[in-house]
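Changelog note: in this version the structure field was regenerated for every chain. One regenerated record is shown below for reference.
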Amino acid sequence: MSRTAVVILNYNGEKLLQQFLPSVITHSAEAEIIVADNGSADGSIALLEKEFPSVRIIRLDQNYGYCGGYNRALQMVDADYYVLLNSDIEVTSGWLSPLIHLLDTQPAIAAVQPKILSYHSKHLFEYAGAAGGYIDILGYPFCRGRVFDYVEEDKGQYNDTRQIFWATGACLMIRAKAYHQFQGLDEDFFAHMEEIDLCWKLQRDGQQIYYCGASTIYHVGAGTLGYDNPRKTYLNFRNGLFLIFKHFDAGELLYKLPFRIVLDWVAAIMYLLKGKTSNGIAVWKAHRDFIYSIGREREKRKTLHARYPSYTRTTVYPGLVIADFFLRGKRKII
């Protein structure tokens, strides 16, 4: 069996570690358990040293965000497979074995995620990942089992194992070689959608991303930023533009980027009409900062496309998820 490291990135998450780390230790005998601390100012380190002596601690000198924290920490982890695991996740008995088996037996698969259900409503899928991630033709991400704010009840309908477009960063098992092939996560994202970017890069190299319904975990969700937090809105809109600008072919970008910008501004107007002024402003700031970053992002795009000129579209949803959800009333897209 390949060597696996479960790495939890922590930032001032003392209470979450106390609550959820015991399940990870109990049910992850196949792996080394590591907590990478992102410069916490609370009692996280003291708690780990006192109550969880079996857990390896990696101390980072400041908060580098999700991307920077993992990039620095994983440079110090010697394993075949990494599991990037959020600190607000309860794992279940036997959760790791199906994921490890899939990577051990399928060399074309670079990364895999388990079924992710809600910790507070365990019969429902959870927002961040659900039953595997996809994008539509404009690059909007969504999940099986969760589209926008609609989540399905788990009735075993997604107990399959299948190829997906992206695997969630809430619980991402990835080959160490694949992670470092692209120098890890793009730190300009800071947080949110960085795992989609990495999965997209891997697919440009012909590698596959999978969902494994034989493994189940429970996720609290929104542990750092609430789902309607303006900062999260900003990151999602800005990073969504980073994502498609970096990856779409030139022909696609010519007409899809303007379409995305228009739809984003429609979303901003809707925020304002609902009285969510801070979220509406966050969309404007996201677009402003995307424009400021065009030069840097153009260089990334040029380098990426020169080496990996194309990507498979077999797991790209051929429709427009916004139209299907809001105009056609579809709740189950795939």
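Spot check on this record: The longest strand covers residues 208-219. The radius of gyration is 19 Å.
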